[in-house]
Design goal:
Strand order of the largest sheet: 4-1-6-7
Radius of gyration: 15 Å
Order of helices and strands: EEEEEEEE
Structural class: mainly beta
Helix content: under 10%
Largest sheet: 4 strands, antiparallel
Distance between the termini: 54 Å
């Protein structure tokens, strides 16, 4: 029998963000993160992304994000990696237009 592969508890493997057309933000979770999103001024929705999950937020004019653990996610804005200067468990508010 082959030896079992070693699992690492540090960070889940994240696949590359999907290719999407139009304005959008992609949230990829390395750690659990609560998100509050307001897209194009419509009603605000709250959700949680868990390690390894990806959430796509398409928009036309503007998206506002509140991230409860900004150091635990990777963001992509319109196909380009967006650097967040957050630390683990740091709450950050971001607006993309």
């Amino acid at each position: 029998m082959a030896p079992a592969a070693e699992a690492t508890a540090s960070e889940p493997a994240l696949s590359p963000p999907p290719a999407v057309e139009g304005k959008h933000v992609i949230i990829q979770a390395r750690e659990e993160c609560w998100v509050q999103a307001t897209v194009d001024g419509a009603s605000t929705r709250s959700f949680t992304v868990y390690p390894g999950e990806t959430s796509l937020l398409p928009y036309k004019r503007k998206v506002s994000l509140v991230l409860g653990n900004s150091g635990g996610v990777n963001l992509t804005h319109n196909g380009k990696s967006y650097k967040i200067s957050g630390r683990p468990s740091e709450k950050r508010t971001l607006v993309f237009e």
